[in-house]
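We include the entry.

. . .
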Amino acid sequence: MPLSLTRTKMKTIKGFIFQNGRLLERKFYQFFFEDSSPESCLNALRAYQNADGGFGNGLEPDLLTPESSPIAMETAFFYLDMLGQPDADMIQKSLIWLESQLKSDGTLPHPPKTLNEYPHQPWWSNPDTHRILSIVSYLKKWKVDSQTLYAGVKKHFDLCAVPQPLEFYDYPYYLYLKFFPRTEIKDILWKQVNVMLPDLIARHQNHYPLIGRHWYLAMDNFSKAEQQQQVQLWIEGLQDDGGLDIVYRDLPWWRPLWTLDGLMVIKKHGLLEIPK
């Protein structure tokens, strides 16, 4: 039987998201829990898409350059996946950016050239080579045809080593294995990664890995009992103000995002009774 939240708790959570989140989070909350239209969510998301087809403008709130970046595109694709109906025009523009930016080694340029002109967290100065794997995995999941792009990215994947051990931010590698056709070698890699998944979940419980944007697509690797155990941990992480207790306490702008992420994932998987 699904776990449940009280009306009072949901009212507190909504208040926290609306007070601390962006217009984007408010629109997605309304779509999921107040019968608003998906178009209102898409309109909010379009504000982050640039004329070149990429996404930027602080969609990833630790990287505030307006310039398009791989992590901003992955973030946009997460929101589109939550809607369950990727916008064709938005995807077509994204493909233009991806195909124009893909390097000969199958990766995307990073960091953005204007990185140091805008506020950002220091880790975004580091390489981000695996981001393309999650981006094309979303496209493959949505059955988007882009064989040239996929062939280019395969060059990069074929040089990737299996993460040992599997860490919290290794989900792009997992997603590529999950959504792209299997070969004999990929099947072996897939089994290796899945053997490591329970340990990853156990070691990173304070990240709520299945109940968020990073590992939610691994949900079907776990039993209903295991899924509900993760939901229970998420519920226990909710604070009196309605926001989720997160590990990045010096980055408070993530609390409304992780809170909403969890609510959306939980609802899509039918793991929690959420009163209106």
Remarks:
- The mean pLDDT is 96.
